[in-house]
From TrEMBL:
It comes from Leucothrix arctica. The keyword Transmembrane applies. Coiled coil: none annotated. It is a multi-pass membrane protein. One of its GO terms (cellular component) is plasma membrane. This is Probable membrane transporter protein. The lineage of its organism: Bacteria, Pseudomonadati, Pseudomonadota, Gammaproteobacteria, Thiotrichales.
Amino acid sequence: MLTDFSDVILLLTAAFIAGALNAVAGGGSFLTLPALVFTGIPPVVANATGTVALLPGYISGAFGFREDLKAPPGLSLVSLAIISIVGGAIGAVLLIFTNDQVFRQIIPWLLLLATGLFAFGPMILNKFKQDSEVTTSFVKAGLGMFSVAIYGGYFNGGLGILLLALLGLLGQTNLNAMNGVKNVVSALLTAIAVLIYAWGDVIAWSQALIMMVAATIGGYLGARVARRIPATVFRMCIVIMGLIMSILFFINS
């Protein structure tokens, strides 16, 4: 249970800003994971709890793009859902069986990878869009989506950029359809991961619930404020934040 008022304020603030960031450009995990670790939550539990807190945002995002939803070339919506659930489940099981000390040493590398993906994501996506000839098979699409789903079930940071890059590589060009698939895959793999986290007893529920409320409010307000602030400003702040968090975890790992 949460007893320290300063910890409650820190988690509420981190979740609120994370929800706003995810509504605009992503990167919320850069705040939720370090905040939970700072309050004394073990790294594996912190990662699982932060993922639970951000789940409502994925679900609402998927619902928002329901009219634009279209499977990428090589996959059907049914196969996409199955791959997302199975991959997310495998990633979640891997997390449960990861030792806290080992995960603490992995965290800075994962944060650095996620930061790099976030920083260079637009460049990667533009490169894929410029490819005029894209041939996609079920095996290619399935293996790509399966790999990203495992990553998402294990560590949520940078998941959105990975999914958009993969969808571009597979030949999907409609941005609304890409965002629809991204949110559906994120919601499915995160939902199954949360069930497995709960089964493995690696969720700090009191922290998760208050962060979930704050993240939902932050997501709504972030979407409203985003219209007045350039996306590049948000992106730059998230990249700087990711680098700082990576350095701090490298120092303390």
